[in-house]
Amino acid sequence: MAQERVRALAHQQEDRSVADDGWGDSGAVPYALNTMAHPVRHQLLRLLAERGEIGVAVLRQELSLSKPAVAYHTKLLLSADLIDVRRQGRSLLYTLRHAAVAELRDALAALARPPRTHDGAAGPKV
Predict the structure, then answer these.
(1) Quick one: CA torsion of 100, 126, 122, 117, rounded to 10 degrees?
(2) According to the model, what pLDDT value does residue 123 have?
(3) Where are the domains of the chain?
């Protein structure tokens, strides 16, 4: 069953890379931000950012979670395009999609810019 899941996720990622960068629709950024707002998922993302590729056993130990709980949280992060997964033997290894995090950073930075006036100059600083 896990093998089928990895194949399906790999297929989805191939389709996504052909179609667009994964952030094409306006709902993707809010969905990703909402997904990463959960404390467990945020901690999982921080671990991946600090250590690179991590297997399920290490995630379970570091996060003090059951195997089903790790599967649940990684599934949500995968659906938000924040992480990638690959199979090595019987293990699933997860990595952070740094490009996706950079795109979220850029989307937030765009919100932080002051508005432009009608003449094109930057508006008042807040």
Answers:
(1) 110
(2) 60
(3) 2-108
pLDDT digits (tens, 9 = 90+) for 82-112: 999 999 999 999 999 999 999 999 988 988 8
Contacts for 2-5 with beta carbons within 8 Å, 24 or more apart? 2/92, 3/87
The dihedrals phi and psi of 43, each to the nearest 5 degrees, come to: -65, -40
CA 43 to each of CA 32, 39, 63, 65, 70: distance values in angstroms, whole numbers, following the listed order: 15, 6, 8, 12, 12
* CATH 3.40.190.10 for the 2-108 domain, yes or no: no
Q: Hey, what amino acid is at 106?
A: D
The whole model's pTM is what?
Answer: 0.71
